[in-house]
Design goal:
The chain is α/β, with parallel strands linked by helices. The protein has a domain at about 5-75 and about 100-180 and about 280-365: FAD/NAD(P)-binding domain. It has helices at about 15-25, 50-60, 60-70, 110-120, 170-175, 235-240, 245-255, 255-260, 295-300, 310-330, 335, 340-365, 365-375, 380-390, and strands at about 5-10, 30-35, 45-50, 75, 80-85, 90-95, 105, 125-130, 130-135, 140-150, 150-160, 185-195, 205, 215-220, 225-235, 270-275, 285-290, 290-295. The strands form three sheets. Strands 1, 2, 8, 9, 10, 11, 17 and 18 form an eight-stranded mixed sheet that branches. Strands 6-5-13-14-15-12-16 form a seven-stranded mixed sheet, with helices on both faces. Strands 3-7-4 form a three-stranded antiparallel sheet. A hairpin with a 2-residue loop joins strand 9 and strand 10 (about 140-150). The chain is globular and about 60 Å long. The structure holds flavin-adenine dinucleotide.
């Protein structure tokens, strides 16, 4: 039997690696588990807003981020374009974050490895292991069960953090089936990389058009002629479609506004599909006896933009603070850690609600999208949401 850890973090994506970094920096004994070795890809649009970069700077990642930018791994952004069905375009500029940070298109292969490596350098112990679920004794989580190197393993901890993303083994085991995400608060999305496209330098592009509402297609530049390209749709509407996401992406590439910019017909690579759980669903439980959920495992993705990295980091900070207080009081019960649910609500809910309402309006009144894009300015809540919650 291994020693009991203070904290086990399941999943070393942005939410898990950030939680592990903060707690390790505070002197706790943290075991960070992920089914994959790093660097690893994660299906994503890769757009990271300045606010998220600011959080990472405060954890000591400034030098790593700057080095990755100088190597061309992270692509700095200056603005965005939102394009309506009739081709109206709203342009807006990104503002620097509080600590002068920029927004980036940061392929997750590089971006996630920076944070995971920082957690390890801060002192967290990393092991590659596929967690199959929490170990529950007398109604409280006391550890996790996993497969590592072909062997079954059990690790124990005072607190388990579920940071294993949208298909979280911890969430599935702890959240009652009747209280999980429903289809109208979920989405599916397809992402690919393209190396022969004329980009708008420094600008991310969002395309809202009738066939894809409530959802959008995107072109997020990663280099001079390369981009992350994809599209996403609300799950309840996608289920009624006869088309696959790949067919829809091919149609997007065939639209004149994109087709004319493809140098060799649009060669796609690394195409992959993944799910998104929105933070717009009310009353989901994130705290359990001895366990807490962060990032996509809790379901904190913005329902309008599909952006979840910033919210993952926000929830990681709040979870780390809660766990620190709980460990100090030697009480990791749900009651002791419940404040986390309220703090997440306070930090994220207004934006989630506003974004869901905009998304619903676009769906109900598609003809309004042209009007909205044409007349909304840089300071509108539409522009602000896309700029800050990419
Ligand atoms: C197609 C698509 C496009 C998106 N575009 C954007 C965007 O442009 N900007 C943005 O901000 N957000 C975007 N998002 C959302 C964003 O990807 C997520 O919100 C973000 O990755 C959440 O981080 P996380 O750390 O919570 O989870 P993840 O990044 O999913 O990390 C979870 C980690 O847990 C590990 N894991 C999973 N299961 C287990 C297990 N059983 N045992 C051990 N380890 C496990 C995984 O390997 C992974 O490393 C997009 C999502 C999709 C699907």
């Amino acid at each position: 039997m291994e020693r009991e850890r203070d904290v086990i973090v399941v999943g070393a994506g942005p939410a898990g690696a950030t939680t592990a970094t903060i707690l390790t920096q505070q002197g706790y004994d943290v075991l960070l588990l992920d089914r994959k070795a790093f660097p690893r890809d994660k299906t994503c649009g890769d757009a990271v807003p300045a606010g998220a970069i600011g959080i990472l700077y405060r954890l000591g990642l400034q030098e790593k981020v700057e080095t990755a930018v100088s190597r061309g791994e992270l692509y700095p952004l200056t603005g965005m374009r939102l394009v309506s069905p009739s081709g109206h375009t709203m342009q807006a500029e990104f503002h620097k974050g509080e600590s002068g940070t920029d927004s980036y298109v940061a392929p997750r292969l590089y971006f996630d490895a920076l944070i995971q490596q920082h957690a390890v350098e801060s002192g967290a112990e990393f092991q590659q292991a596929q967690v199959t679920g929490p170990v529950v004794e007398d109604g409280r989580v006391i550890g996790v069960r996993a497969k590592a190197n072909g062997n079954s393993k059990t690790w124990q901890a005072k607190v388990v953090v579920g940071a294993d993303g949208v298909t979280s083994s911890i969430t599935r085991a702890l959240r009652p089936k009747t209280a999980q995400h429903i289809d109208k608060h979920r989405a599916v999305a397809l992402r690919a990389y393209i190396d022969d496209i004329e980009i708008y330098p420094g600008e991310v592009e969002f395309y809202l058009y009738n066939e894809i509402l409530p959802g959008y297609a995107w072109v997020f530049p990663t280099g001079e002629h390369s981009a992350n390209i994809g599209l996403g749709m609300r799950l309840d509407h996608f289920r009624g479609r006869k088309q696959s996401l790949e067919e829809m992406l091919r149609q997007f590439l065939a639209m004149p506004v994109i087709k004319k910019r493809l140098k060799e017909g649009g060669k796609l690579r690394n195409m992959a599909t993944w799910q998104l759980n929105f933070g717009s669903q009310k009353q989901l439980q994130h705290v359990y006896e001895g366990a807490i959920l962060v990032g996509d495992a809790a379901g904190f993705i913005n329902p309008l933009t599909g952006g979840g990295i910033h919210n993952s980091l926000v929830s990681a900070q709040l979870a780390a603070k809660t766990i620190h207080n709980a460990l100090a009081q030697r009480d990791t019960s749900r009651k002791s850690m419940l404040g986390y649910e309220q703090e997440c609500h306070d930090a994220l809910w207004d934006n989630m609600k506003r974004s869901f309402n905009i998304q619903r309006t676009l769906l109900r009144f598609p003809s309004l999208v042209d009007w909205l894009v044409k007349w909304s300015g840089e300071n509108s809540s539409l522009a602000k949401t896309f700029l800050t919650k990419l």
